[in-house]
Design a protein that fits this description.
The structure holds 2 protein chains of 2 kinds. By secondary structure, chain A is an all-beta fold. In chain A, about 0% of the residues lie in helices and about 50% in strands. The chains are: A mainly beta, B mainly beta.
């Protein structure tokens, strides 16, 4: 199955640590999107990347959050100095050209203790 | 920013009943999508709508893209227990060039419970 792969599925971090979330898009997909979902809420857009480029980061918090999608390897969402409010499910999605429905991964559930 | 209002928030129905949920927006969207999310998983695409007025079916599911491009509905006929989950609408905006742009705006979700 060549679906969108996210790891880890669950991540526990203490306040102040760094969290690194990885996403491998579907084969052939060069568009990657990251979304955050708080409990009992819909998904909120964070960032849209194409290979080596950030296309839209309008949903990213101004501090502590960064994302990259290098030429080789998975896309990484990095959260520095995590706080309890960062606890959420983070979903990655990929698409072939950005114009059609995405395929989502199963998410990474981040818990900050 | 763009917002989608999805209703109802939750539904409790008997197996075999039909279900209807809808989304409205103050903004125009180029594409409407309906997703289903089960516990611990990511959303799975059910139906994608690309043209105003389009009516599309996928098995027992039927969805329509409103003429004004500001609303959409999803119907599920003859519900079964495995229909349980959270259903989300999502809209994809149009960019200045007239094509769909990558970012999706999601509704708040409709929690569906089906009693056998």
């Amino acid at each position: 199955n060549a679906g969108v792969m996210q790891n880890p599925r669950h991540l526990v971090r203490r306040r102040g640590q760094e969290a690194r979330l990885r996403c491998s898009p579907m084969k052939g997909h060069s568009h990657v999107y990251w979304y955050r979902q708080l409990p009992e809420e819909g998904l909120k857009f964070m960032v849209y990347l194409q290979k080596e480029n950030i296309i839209d980061e309008s949903g990213m918090p101004k501090e502590r959050f960064s994302a990259e999608f290098p030429k080789e390897g998975p896309s990484i969402l990095r959260i520095q100095q995590v706080v309890r409010g960062d606890s959420a499910a983070y979903f990655c999605a990929s698409s072939l050209d950005g114009n059609y429905g995405y395929t989502f991964g199963s998410g990474t559930r981040l818990t900050v203790v | 920013g763009q917002q989608l209002n999805q209703s109802p928030q939750s539904m409790f129905i008997q197996e075999g009943e039909d279900v209807s949920m809808n989304c409205t927006s103050s903004s125009i969207f180029n594409t409407w999508l309906w997703y289903k999310q089960e516990p611990g998983e990511g959303p799975v695409l059910l139906i994608a709508l690309y043209k105003a007025g389009e009516l599309t079916s996928n098995g027992r599911l039927t969805a329509q893209f409103g003429i004004t491009r500001k609303d959409s509905f999803l119907n599920i006929s003859a519900s079964i227990p495995s229909d349980v989950g959270i259903y989300f609408c999502a809209g994809q905006a149009q960019n200045a060039g007239g094509t769909s742009y990558g970012k999706l705006t999601f509704g708040q979700g409709t929690i569906l419970t089906v009693h056998p």
